[in-house]
Design a protein that fits this description.
The relative contact order is 0.15. By secondary structure, the chain is of the alpha/beta class. The chain has seven helices and nine strands, in the order βαβαβαβαβαββαβαβ.
Length: 241
């Protein structure tokens, strides 16, 4: 076991997950990659290894809430303590629904991935971080967690609940050496599964919709984790009101 730090990326896709792995990996972090499918994860592990970054794949369904504690233990058994945990999965369907059409049965399936899973991941990594007096948790969400957008409810209430949890958690643990923060994205992430789905079959993306480079998001998350001067960041940055 080395004294290198470890980042666990929960939802390690080809967009933000890949950028986070590279950004933290070049700082000497070992990288734990968590996502549903094993084969793409192993491909990313090989790519990182070719860049001199130690990484391992941990295939898991993050909506299987009961399996999260064991998942975290398996990462810790392989790499030691988790110093930074970033939760950033992108479901195949985001589930935007007008508020007038929203009811409990339509909202409930979104709760696992947008609220219960990030809270369960945080709960699983917190004991080790608090015992060491150091660690960082970053939950990545969407702009609708912060700004109400007509016609785009559904995921917003779930992410808003998670945002409230993260802000409250940070207020409780910051004096104990642990950081909790949130990154809210108001754009399509380039090179991501969501971007590929939006442009599948030759479809053109609405030019009014912003697209952001995941490397920019990874850099901002690195800043949150290392500087700890803000609990929340929004990208692209919103104009001052």
């Amino acid at each position: 076991m080395t004294d290198k730090k470890t980042i666990a990326i929960f939802g390690a896709g080809t967009g933000l997950g890949a950028s986070l792995a590279t950004r933290f990996g070049r700082e000497g972090y070992k990288v734990a990659l968590v996502a549903r499918r094993a084969a793409p994860l192993e491909e990313r592990v090989a790519e990182l290894a070719s860049a001199g970054i130690a990484a391992a794949a941990f295939p898991a369904d993050l909506t299987n809430l009961g399996g999260i504690p064991a998942l975290v233990r398996s990462i810790e058994e392989r790499f030691g303590s988790i110093d930074t945990a970033v939760f950033c999965p992108v479901p195949s369907e985001l589930g935007f629904i007008p508020a007038v059409e929203l009811n409990a049965s339509r909202l409930q399936p979104m709760a696992d991935i947008f609220t219960f899973s990030p809270i369960e991941v945080s709960h699983a990594v917190l004991p080790g971080m608090l015992a060491r007096g150091d660690g960082a948790i970053v939950i990545v969400g969407g702009l609708t967690a912060v700004v109400t957008i007509p016609g785009m409810s559904g995921v917003g209430p779930m992410m808003a609940a998670t945002r409230n949890y993260v802000l409250t958690l940070n207020a409780e643990v910051a004096q104990k050496g642990v950081y909790a923060g949130t990154m809210n994205i108001g754009a399509f992430i380039d090179r991501s599964a969501g971007m590929r789905a939006a442009t599948a079959g030759g479809k053109e993306l609405d030019p009014r919709l912003p697209v952001i480079d995941p490397d920019e998001i990874a850099e901002e998350i690195w800043s949150l984790v290392t500087k700890r001067d803000r609990v929340e960041a929004i990208l692209p940055q919103m104009p001052a009101s």
